[in-house]
Fold this sequence. Notes:
Blueprint: H1 7-10, H2 25-37, H3 43-52, H4 54-57, H5 70-79, H6 82-96, E1 104-111, E2 126-132, E3 137-144, H7 150-160, E4 167-170, H8 177-185, E5 189-194, H9 199-210, H10 212-217, E6 223-231, E7 234-243, E8 260-270, E9 273-283, H11 289-299, H12 301-312, H13 326-343, H14 351-360, H15 362-370
Parallel strand pairs: 1-4, 4-5
Antiparallel strand pairs: 1-2, 2-3, 5-9, 6-7, 7-8, 8-9
Amino acid sequence: MQDKSITSFFEKIEDQRRHNKLHKLIDIIIIAICGVVAGADTYEQIENFGKKRKNWLSTFLELPHGIPSHDTFGRIFERMNPNEFQNSFKRWIESVTERTKGQVVAIDGKTLRRSHDRSNDKKAIHMISAWASSNQVVLGQLKTREKSNEITAIPNLLKLLDISGCIITIDAMGTQKKIAKTIINKDADYILALKENHKTLYGDTVLFFNEMEKMKLEGFHFDEYETVDGDHGRIETRKYVITPDIGWLQDKANWPGLQCLGMVESTRNVQGEVSHDKRYYISSLKCDAKKFGNAVRAHWGIENSVHWVLDIAFREDESRVRKGSAPENFAAIRHIALNLLRNNKTFKGSVKTKRLNAAMDTKYLSDVVFEP
């Protein structure tokens, strides 16, 4: 069994303990990763997993004093430097995934609802994550204090990642000139959602697309692409429109790399009830409505394939891990487990079903963790 995929990337993390180092730090980290892959969601469950699978774990870990207690797991993750852990995570994911040029990297945030610690006047933490649509993996994550701090945290996350040649998609809170500049400087493109937080730019864009037919007659170019989806009595038509003719836009020069304005017009028919919605974007992409539309749709994968799965399959919103740096570090372990489970194709099923299979079958667990 080869352990280089995981162990070699986490074994250099500094041990913050000064005394009582009965258990090796790398053993604790690997037991936790294996335990979370196999369905453990708390320190107590990780300890129980370790005891039940001690013979298996001892085939590749030293375990000089057996399996650590749940209190030991807690103390380690509370004290572990989250930046070191995140950097180890980043190096590992870069080693096991192939960056696909032109793939969408969606950036979005999620609050860990029960990570607040009232006894220490600590609010729930908010994590922003980068998700690669083609590889279906989380590339990295960063903690912020509050949702509003995404604005300052997103550039820091982007600087950590190799996003050259990728298309970065972010919701309206991340539509900031500094973020656009960071993306362009990293040799990537962006599609940024546009809302009223940029009142003038949003208003001008809405007015322009409302006059689209008139603009066409005046020689303005619009590229268009349409999709139709339907199931269970629902039919949804999406029209994607993008234009490079933005020389009239007063704020154009202030947005690094800006080349196009985009609009998505959705019409939903649910058993005869029809609703309409329009959303607007700025982008550094060249005028290609199909590419624009595919990227916009791919963005929502971070909600469905990451945030929703973390809540349903990993019960993240119920996690009471809250002391020190533990919420951030444990969130990273859940992301590692999610990447490993989704990357393994030897067993088909939902992430939740794969976790159950990993708990019952150490051969499968070995394949998931050590053969990504």
